[in-house]
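does this look right to u?? iron/sulfur cluster version
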Amino acid sequence: MTATYAEPAEPASQIDLGDQGGAGELETLTVTVQVRRYLPEFQEDAYWDTWQLEMYPTDRVLDALHKIKWEHDGTLSFRRSCAHGVCGSDAMRINGRNRLACKTLLKDLDHTKPITVEPIKGLPCEKDLIVDMEPFFQSYREIMPFLVSNDNQEPTRERIQSAAERERFDDTTKCILCAACTSSCPIFWTDGQYFGPAAIVNAHRFIFDSRDDAGDMRLEILNDKEGVWRCRTTFNCTEACPRGIQVTKAIAEVKQAILARSF
Ligand code: SF4
Ligand code: FES
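got this back:
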């Protein structure tokens, strides 16, 4: 996901409401947004930039960032694509907590104080709110995030699975690879080698899939000193996940599966 800017849908604060037939005027609010800037081609150190914006309470933090970029400072850089919580490209630290900018409404934040926006932690910052996601995706690739079948024959029909078998890994199918969990994990901050919660969640998704035949291989990969045993059950990942996935529970289930196999 490399897109940093394209002409997207207008935020609510830029839509000309015209005659909406009795909806009345929407009240705006003044918000102060502080963004952690990093422009390595001009300045070695990161610094804070501040803007005061007139926004609607129903605008999202992403709308505020768009307003800054389009109306105040075109050099501000951040990733986003879908703007609706699906693509996972706009995870950032908002008021010190990992969230998706497109899912965070201004009315849900305390706008009597500045709203702070920073890049997620633990991954190298490339520019402003854009981090290098390669270490994150490297861990993801290592757990083999695809269905593996020992049946070498080309299937002639779909692989049948009961509703209960599908339910077993339903929660971990919801991951959008936003990295909010992994970049909220203190073990990942201090040890960049740790697989991190997102990779384990995606391993879980296949380990507990009755159609998959590589569960033992994935468990062996995660039964590593940089694997599941680094998790200290701090629950930061579960709190950070914008999809509501029980991340810590999934990690615990993978640990139990490894112990049950006794490698
Ligand atoms: S588990 Fe949740 S927080 Fe982690 S990458 Fe997936 S969607 Fe994002
Ligand atoms: S822009 Fe796609 S999840 Fe926020």
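Residues 80-83, 85-90, 100, 102 surround FE2/S2 (inorganic) cluster (ligand 2) (CB under 6 Å). idk if thats expected tbh
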